[in-house]
Amino acid sequence: MPENSLQRLRVILLGSGNVATNLGEALKEADAEIVQVYSRNKANAKVLAKKLKAKVLTDITKIDKRPALIIIAVKDDAIPALVKKMKVTEGIVVHTSGSVSMDVLKKFEQYGVFYPLQTFSKNRKKEFSIVPICIEGSDISTLHSLMNVAETLSDCVYNLDSKQRQAAHLAAVFANNFTNHIYAIAEDLLNEQKLPFDLIRPLIDETAVKVMELSPAEAQTGPAVRKDTKVMNAQIALLKKHPELKKLYNEMSAGIIKRSRKKK
Amino acid sequence: MPENSLQRLRVILLGSGNVATNLGEALKEADAEIVQVYSRNKANAKVLAKKLKAKVLTDITKIDKRPALIIIAVKDDAIPALVKKMKVTEGIVVHTSGSVSMDVLKKFEQYGVFYPLQTFSKNRKKEFSIVPICIEGSDISTLHSLMNVAETLSDCVYNLDSKQRQAAHLAAVFANNFTNHIYAIAEDLLNEQKLPFDLIRPLIDETAVKVMELSPAEAQTGPAVRKDTKVMNAQIALLKKHPELKKLYNEMSAGIIKRSRKKK
C-alpha cells in the first residue's frame, strides 16, 4: 500500500456542504472508502454520495456500526443537535469547525477536531495538499490516527489545542471575511464614480501574492505608513458622505501608523 | 515598425523608485529610448540609468531639450517643487500619482497623468500588460498620445478624469493598504497563540483568487453574513484585551450585515 493511501480507512460523512464536498473528494482520491453520506437536505446528500460512491444515510440513528472515521461537517450551530441524535459507535468522531469546542463530542470514546483552514466552494476544487489542516484529539492514539489521515491529504498539518484553534479561526475571519468586505467597500467607491471593479482586481491579486513571501509589515505601503497627512486628509474629505467609511479610514490609518512605530 | 513598439518615443524619467523602475523597464522593453534618468538619490539614478541604457541627469534644469515624454515618478509631495525647478520644454509632461491633480503641471504646454494602478517592488518585476493604467490629458491630442503609449504597455487602459482617479486611488488604498493591515492584524492574533502566519497564507491567497471572477458580495462568507451571533460573540470575547480590534470586529461585522441586506 503506498504511503499516501488511506485504503483501509472507512469514512462516514455527515454533511453535504462545501467542506463535506471538498473533504470527501480529497479522502476519496486518497483511496478511503466513503461508506455513507448524511445530510438534512436529501437531494444534496444524493449528489455527494453518488460522487463519492457512497450510500445515502437518511436516518442519523442508522449510522453503519462498523469502526469508521465519522466526520461531522455541518454548520456550527447544527452540531450539538446532530451529536445528540447519534448513537455511540466505534471509531473516531470529529467535527470540522474552527470555533466549536472539541468537548461537544465527549460522549464518544474517541473524538477530535479536523479543521481545514480554507474557504471552499462546491464548484471550485481545491488542491488539498496545500490546505492547512488543524487537528486535535481526545487522546494520543486518536491524535495519531487523525495526524495520519491529515498528513495523507495535506502537507500542512497543525496540532492545535482548542484555544489555538479559536485564535486561528479568529485570524481567518479577519483575513478572509473582513478582507472580502474591504474589497466590497472598494467596489462601492469605484461604482460611485462609474468605475468597474476590474480596475483594482490586479492590485488585489498582487496584494495577496506579496505576503506569500513577505510579512505584512514588510509589504505595507500607502499614505498612512508614509505618514502622508496631505493625501490622508484629501481622501478623508472624499468620504464626507460616508461617515462609517470615514471612521474606518481613520481607524485603519491609525492602526497602520501605530504598528509601523512598534516595528522600529 | 510593429504595433506594440514605441521605437520613436524618447522618454525622460524623473524618479528612481518602484514606479519609475517598473515603468522604465516596461517602456524600454517596448523599444522606447530612455534618454535621461533623474533622481535626488544619485546612486539610485545611476543604477536605474544603467539598466535602461540612459544618461544620469543630476541637474534638473538640464533636461534634454528635444521633444520627449517626461515622466515624473517621484513621491506625491515632491512633485510641486520638482515642477517649479523644471524649465518649460517641448513634449508631454506627466506625473504617475493617483492623488495629485493634473493641474500641478499646467505651466507646461502639453501635460497629463499616467497612473499605473498597481503596487510595485523594485525586485519583483510585474507583467505590465495586466497593469491597469489610468490616463488623463490636458487636451485631446495629448490624451491620444498618452493612450497610444499606455495601450502599447498594457491591455487595461482607462481614461479617467481627476475625480474618477481620486476615487480609484481611494479604492486602491482600501484594497491594498487596508487589506494588508488586516493581514497584519491576523498575523498578530496568530502570534499571540504562537502560531505562524503560514497557517493563513493559503486562505489569503484563495480570498483574493475568489474575487478575480466573483464579485465581493458573491464571495462573502463567515459568521457575520450568516448572522451567527453565537460565533460572533465568542470571537468578540476573545478580543477583550484588544479594545481597538473589538471595535473593528463590530464595525466590520455590522458593515457586512448591512451590505448583505442591501443586496437582497
- Shape summary of chain A: elongated
Count of discrete alpha- or pi-helical segments spanning 4 or more residues of chain A: 9
User: Beta-strand level of the residues of chain A, as a percent range?
Assistant: 5-15%
Largest sheet of chain A: 8 strands, mixed
Element layout with pairings:
The structure is a homodimer of 264-residue chains.
Chain A: E1 10-14, H1 18-29, E2 33-38, H2 42-51, E3 55-57, E4 68-72, H3 79-85, E5 91-95, E6 110-116, E7 133-137, H4 140-153, E8 157-159, H5 162-192, H6 201-213, H7 216-219, H8 229-238, H9 243-263
Parallel strand pairs in A: 1-2, 1-4, 2-3, 4-5, 5-6, 7-8
Antiparallel strand pairs in A: 6-7
In short:
Chain A is built from nine helices and eight strands.
Can you put this structure into words, describing what you see?
- 2 copies of one chain form a homodimer.
- By secondary structure, the first copy, chain A, is of the alpha/beta class.
- Chain A has an 8-stranded mixed beta sheet with strand order 3-2-1-4-5-6-7-8, with helices on one face.
- In chain A, strand 4, helix 3 and strand 5 form a beta-alpha-beta unit.
- Chain A contains 9 helices and 8 strands.
- The first copy, chain A, folds into 3 domains: 151 residues, Rossmann fold; 53 residues, Orthogonal Bundle (N-(1-d-carboxylethyl)-l-norvaline Dehydrogenase, domain 2); 45 residues.
- The mean pLDDT of chain A is 94.
- The termini of chain A are far apart.
